[in-house]
Amino acid sequence: xxxxxxxxxxxxxxxxxxxxxxxxxxxxxxxxxxxxxxxxxxxxxxxxxxxxxxxxxxxxxxxxxxxxxxxxxxxxxxxxxxxxxxxxxxxxxxxxxxxxxxxxxxxxxxxxxxxxxxxxxxxxxxxxxxxxxxxxxxxxxxxxxxxxxxx
Length: 151
Known about the structure:
44% of the residues lie in helices and 18% in strands. The chain has 151 residues and is an alpha+beta fold. The radius of gyration is 16 Å and the shape is elongated.
């Protein structure tokens, strides 16, 4: 392992940083990154997006949708729109509030017992980068405040 923070862009998002749970290894083709628990990491990223970000961007919407194993067509059927509308949400920098609340609720589900309004009111006003640290949770990674992680 390394003590450096790794900017994890391979997931398709620009704001993901790993504190640990990765190793930089030398290969015949140069340095490569080994992630210890990719599935757990992707679950933690999706959960952090749904719980932490004040608004979900198009790429984040796409990431959460894919984490749930849903197609654009299926999301459209559930939400009541066509697949092209979902594709447009994913290409735009910021999606509308109803779609934002919808994907959060769909991912987080009933166990948290929060309505979309409660969830929206509990979100911070400032957008954050997300740092993820490997730990003993079921999914392997936990989100941390990047400012605390760097310090």
